[in-house]
Model the fold of this input.
Amino acid sequence: MTSGVRHLVSIDDLSLAEIQALFEHAKRFSEDLRAWAHLCPGLISASLFYEPSTRTRLSFESAMQRLGGGVLTAAEMNSSSASKGESLADTVRVVGGSYADLIVLRHASEGAARLAAQYSPVPVINAGDGSHEHPTQTLCDLYNLWIERGRIDGIHVVLSGDLRYSRTIHSFVYALARFGANIVCVPLPGFELPAYVMQRLREEFGVEPTRADVSRLGELARECDAMYLTPQKPHQLSLFTDGKGLTLERVDALYMTRPQTERYTADELQRTRVVRLGKQELAAESLREAVVMHPLPRRDEISGDIDSDPRSIYFKQAARGVPIRMAILGVLLGRLDLGAPSSRIASSSYGVSRGGNPCANPSCISRTESRHVTPAYRLANRAPVRAYCWFCSQEIAHRLVGCSTTGIFHERDSSAARKIRPDHLVFLRDEAEALAQGFIPASRPTLTS
Ligand code: NCD
Done:
């Protein structure tokens, strides 16, 4: 396993000051994209794409070439040695060994980039891991907001479509919350933000969810149970809450996403409906000054009749992916500085010391590549004990916890559970599992008369 190399696995890997510094670099690059070939000559990036891509891969490759570097591209990794059973861990060791100086990775398993970063000798950039995160799309989206609106704190961003499976949305909401933007979720029914994302927004970013009255969004929000997510507690907006929720007056950005049908169950495919943004919907009062964004590809959720509306910036948004990715590459290859000492989100991980893999997410890399993964978790809370898988970020379901040194198990919300050292914690679903793993119950206090 490698250490001391800087990777970009999650949007949490960058502090707000560093993100701001990336914007400044990107802005300088965008003044003349052809003037920077002296920055990375002789360096090579490798694109390892196990899932389809147009914009992300091509904009990264364009960015690398504009910096004077070279590119190795494996756009169909599923037809590479992976089809012969080679693990991701082995592939990145080989590619990062002498073939390339940096790896851009897209993979269907959640947490794949986290695993790759553990094994790769060179920086790994997460270009999308399942429905988990897509931090460089978020940097591109934030950069667009910064250019178009001049700031991110305090603005109102409406997120619409499939908020459940869109990895772009997950990285985006974490960053928007950190910047202090107000987020209004207008999901397709049944495709709301996942519970683990909401939990994290509340617990770590102090976000306050409130019901939103989005009648001013017109048709767009007709079937939605919309929600306002306001960062920083207590938020000024809460002064205006009257029990009916908050009324959305003015939107700064409307971010649309497509249904991520490739990840749906048969039942979800049946339930898929489309929200459609066209001329009529865009006429809604609150959208008068909103910019319309989309990570693309779009399907039917944005109709062509608004492409020429000056508020529709999705093609500009994609074009700005090149300068922002030039900045990301320059930094990770050690050719650009982010200046400000970083106060990134500190999070430690702990290996699971006993029992099987406690992560139940079937698309987590800890399950799909179990040979090379040591299950690990991040401790979010101690009372009750709450932990998230270190790879896919989903919550670990358990009612009891054991201590690997005493061999005793406890209820997760007991005071004894709170005192167990994180590296000694064992997650146990129920008593049967605890006993099967050789744990004994904590002795219950006896009643004395
Ligand atoms: C997104 C992705 O791949 O997650 N596209 C992109 O990177 N520009 C969005 C999507 O596929 O819907």
The chain is about 30% helix and 20% strand. Residues 55-56, 128, 134, 137, 167-168, 257-258, 295-296 surround N-carbamoyl-L-aspartate (CB under 6 Å).
